[in-house]
Amino acid sequence: MEFFVVQFLTGLASAASLFLVASGLSIIFGVTRIVNFAHGAFYMLGAYVAYTLTERFEGFFGFWGGILLAALVVAAIGALLEIVLLRRIYRAPELFQLLATFGVTLMVQDLVVMIWGPEDLVGPRAPGLRGAVDILGLAVPTYDLFLIVLGPLVLGALWILFHRTRWGVLVRAATQDRDMVAALGVNQTWLFTSVFALGIFLAGLGGALQIPRNAVTHLMDLSIIVEVFVVVVIGGLGSVLGAFIAAVLVSELNAFGILVFPKISIVLVFLVMACVLIVRPWGLLGRPEGPARQPAGLSIRPWHPMSPNQRLLMLALVVVAGFVPLVAGNYVLTVLAEIAVFALFAASLHFLMTVGGLASFGHAAYFGLGAYGAAFATTMFGAPMVASLLLGPLLGVAGAILFGWFCVRLSGVYFAMLTLAFAQIAWSIAFQWVEVTGGDNGILGVWPASWASSPAAFYWLALAVSVAGIAALRVLVFSPFGYALRATRDSALRSEAIGIDRARVQWAAFIIAGTFAGIAGALFAFLKGSVFPDNLAIPMSVDGLVMVLLGGIETVSGAVVGAVVYKALAIWLVSQTDLSKLVLGAVIVLLVVAFPKGIVGFAEDLMARRRARTDDGGAALAAPAKAAPAAPGSGAAPIAAPKMEAAR
Amino acid sequence: MSEPILEVENLSKSYGGVHAVRGVSFSLRAGEILALIGPNGAGKSTCFNMLNGQISRDSGSVRILGRDTAGMRPREIWRLGVGRTFQITATYPSMTVRENVQVAILSHHRELGRLFGFAGARHRTEADRLLGLVGMQELAARPCGELAYGDLKRLELAIALVNEPRLLLMDEPTAGMAPKERVDLMRLTASIAREQSIGVLFTEHDMDVVFEHADRIMVLNRGQLIASGTPGEVRNNPDVKAVYLGEGSVYGGEAA
C-alpha cells in the first residue's frame, strides 16, 4: 500500500514537467495553429542552459535564478525563431510549419552536442530541497513534493493570466476565432510572438526543472515530444486544464503501468489515447474544430493527367535510371536502390496526404510492418524472396485495415495524432515482444535470392517495383476512386450530399497507402538484410512527411522528387560531415521559406507563369489569383476570397 | 394533382429546453414550389436539416416519395432522389466546374469505387448538358475555386439535378447574390422544376424572390407554423405581418 502511494507521488512529480511543456504546446497551437515539433528541442535547451547556469552560479539564488533565467533565455530564442522563421510561413499549408519546426529540431540536436558534448550531464541538486520526506515509512524526495505543488500553481497562474489580463482575454479570443480577433484591430503579429514566447518559456522551464531529477541528454527532446503530443491530444488541443489532467493521467499510467504490465507499459499510454480519441475525438476538454477550414494541399490549379510528351519524358527518365548500373559502382547502386524504395514509401504517404487530405504522422508503421512481414516470411517459414515480397506487405495491409478503421473517424490534427499513436504501439510491440521480433536486436539474415543479390540486380528490382507502384498510385489519383477521395477532402458536406460515404472512401485510401508502404518496407528489409524497430519508429514517419512536403503537397507526384532530394541529401551529408542533422535541418528550413509549395509546386508555378505570359489571355487569370497575398497570420483563412475577386 | 412527394407530419426538435421546431406538418407535390420563411431563429434551418438527414428528429415523420426517412443519412436520402443546395455553397474547389458535376454523376451511377480509368473522361456529355441547363457551359473547364459566388450557386443547382431528383431542397438559394442574379436563378429553378415536375422547397429572406416564385408559402415562427397558403393569403395575414413582414409591406402586391 505504502509503495503505491509513493509511486503515485512520483507519478505526480513527473506530471509537473510534462504539464508545463504540454500546456506550452497547447497554448501555441490554440492561437497560431502551429503544431510546434521543436517544442521538445526547447525543453531540452531549457535543461542544458539551466545546467550551465546552475553550474556557474552556485547557492540558493544561483540555482533558482539559473532555472528561471534558463527558461527566459529559451523563451527569447523562441521569440527570435518566431520572428525570423515562423512569421514567414503562417500562410503556408499547415503541415509546412510542422516541417519547419522539425528542421529546427534537427538543428538543435546537433547544436546541443556541439556545445555541451554527447555525454549525459548530471545537474546539481536543488538547494533547500535536497533531502527526502518520510511518507508512510518510505522516503520521498523533497524536490518531488515541490514539483507536485508547482504543477497546480502554474495552472493557477496561467488561469489568472488568461482570465484576468487583457492579453489573456485576447489570447482566448484568438484561440476561438483568430480571424475575428484580427478583424477587431488587434495587432496579431505581436500577439502571436508573445504567445509563442510564453509557450516556449513553459517548455524551457519544464526542461530546467528536470535537471535535479534526471540527467540532461541530447535525446530527451524526441522522448518528451511524443509524450507531450499524447498529453495534448488526450487533454484537448488548446485547453490548459485539459493538458494538466492529461499530464497527470499519462504520468500515473507510466508510473503504474510499469508495475502492472511491465511488457506493454509503453503501449498503455497510447492505448488510452486511442480510446479517448475514439470516444471524444477532440480530447477530454477540447472543443470540436470549427466548421472545417480549407484542408492543406488545396490547389487552385486543377490536376491533369500527363500529356503524351510528359509521359515520354517520364519513360525516358526511367530508361536512363535503368542504365545507371552500367556506369555506377556498387555503393552508388545500393544508395539508389534505397532512394527508389523511399520514393515508393513517400508516394504512398503522398497519396494519403495530398489526394485524401489525411496527414498521417505514423505512416512508417505500415512500412515497418511490411518489412517485418517479409522478415517473418523469410526467417520463420523459409519463404523464397519473391514470396516474401508478396506476403510481407500483407502485414502492413492488415495493420492499415485495423488502425485505419479508427483513424478515419477523426480528421486534421487529431487524425495525425492518432496515426502517430498507432505507429508508436506498433513500434512498442516490435521493441518489447523480444521472443518474436528480437526486440532491439531486430531480425537478421533477410537476404535476397541469389538472382537479386548483386547490387545492380537489386537496384533493378527496387526500381521496377517502385516505378510500377508509383505509376499505379498515379492511375489511382485520376480514377473515379481518386476523384471520390479528393471530393471527401475538398468538402465533406457536399460529398455526403451526393451519396459519398466519406469514412469508407478514406478507409480504402488508408489501406491502399498502407499497402504500398508495406511493399516499400518489404523491399527495404531485403535491401538491408535485416529489420529493426527503427523501421516503424517516429523518425521514419517524419522522414516520409518531410519528403512529401519537400516535393510539394499540392502536386500529383511531388513526393517522388522530395524523396530523391531528401534521401540523397541525407545520405550524402552523413558521409561528408558529422553535423549532418544541423545541415539537413538548415536545408529543410531554407527550403520551407524559399519554396513553401515544395520543389515540384515551385516548378509548376514557374511553368504556369511562363504559360500565362505566352497565352496573355484567360489563362493569365490563374497567376494573379494564386499570387494574391493572404493577410499575415491568417494561414487558415478561407482561400476563396482572393480567388473570387480575381474571377470577377 | 399528383401524389405528394414530401409529407411531413408533426416534425419536432428541441435543443435542451428550447423547442427549435414544434409540430410542423406540411406536404409538397411534384412541380410545386414551396417557400419556408420566417425570422432568424424561427427553426427554418433546423427543419431543413431534419428533412435531408443532417440532424435527427425528436418526433414526427418525414416521408419522401412514400418512404419514411427515419434514421437515414443524407447520402441515403440523396439516393431516394433528393437534390440539395447549401446556404453557404459547398463545392470542390480543387476541381474544374465540369469535374464537380462529373463526380456527382459518377456517384449517381455508383462508379466511384472504380480504381482504373480516367474519371475526367467519363460522363462528359451529361455533365456539359447539365451545365448548359444552368447556363455555365463556357465555364466548364474553369477551376471551381475561381468562380464568383453567383456562379457557384448555379453550379450547385446543376449538381443537384444530377440524380434526376423529384425533390429539391434549397437553403437560401439566392443568399449573397446580386439582385439580378437572384431573379435569374429563381426563374431558372422554377422553369426546370415545372418542366421536370420537381417539387421545390426553399427558404429565403428575399421577399421579392419568395412572393414572385413560390406557389405556396409557409411561415415559421419560434418553431411553429403560423401561416400557410398562397402568396396572396400570406401577404395579408395579420400574424405574419406582426412577426415577420412588418406593417405596410406590399411585396409582390402590384404583380398579384
Mass-distribution shape of chain B: globular
Q: Segments of chain B where pLDDT lies below 50 for 5+ residues? A: none
In terms of per-residue confidence, which ranges of chain A show pLDDT below 50 for 5 or more consecutive residues? Answer: 291-299, 617-648
Q: Which oligomeric form is depicted?
A: heterodimer
- Roughly how many Å is the radius of gyration of chain A? 25 Å
Which CATH architecture of the largest domain in chain B is right? 3-Layer(aba) Sandwich
Please name the CATH topology of the largest domain in chain B: Rossmann fold
> Between the first and last Cα atoms of chain B, what is the distance in angstroms?
23 Å
Largest sheet of chain A: 2 strands, antiparallel
Biggest chain-to-chain interface with counts? A-B, 42 and 44 residues
Instruction: Indicate the overall shape of chain A.
Output: globular
Give me the side-by-side strand order of the main sheet of chain B: 6-7-8-3-9-10
Number of domains of chain B: 2
Compute the number of strand runs of chain A.
Answer: 4
Taken together, the total number of domains of chain A comes to 3
Overall pLDDT metric of chain B: 88
Give helix % range of chain B.
Answer: 25-40%
H-E order of chain B: EEEHEEHEHHHEHEHEEHH
Strand content of chain B: 15-25%
In short:
Chain A: It is a multi-pass membrane protein. The complex is a heterodimer of chains A (648) and B (256). By secondary structure, chain A is mainly alpha-helical.
